[in-house]
């Protein structure tokens, strides 16, 4: 995961970098919770958790109204 968190962002925008990192962190967490395996039946829950992490990232980027 560290390779995705540091180093050259491969031409991605800052938002894309943040989203990629959020997805990588959540996948890492989900794999740790599931003994390094994601069963097919667990994919909807994993996708849901990733969606929450992405939403959290997007909320953190919003600037307050002027």
TrEMBL record:
<protein>
    <submittedName>
        <fullName>Uncharacterized protein</fullName>
    </submittedName>
</protein>
């Amino acid at each position: 995961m560290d390779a995705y968190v540091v180093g050259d962002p491969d031409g991605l925008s800052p938002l894309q970098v943040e989203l990629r990192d959020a997805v990588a962190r959540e996948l890492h967490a989900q794999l740790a919770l599931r003994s390094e395996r994601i069963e097919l039946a667990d994919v909807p829950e994993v996708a849901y958790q990733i969606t929450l992490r992405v939403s959290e990232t997007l909320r953190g980027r919003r600037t307050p109204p002027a």
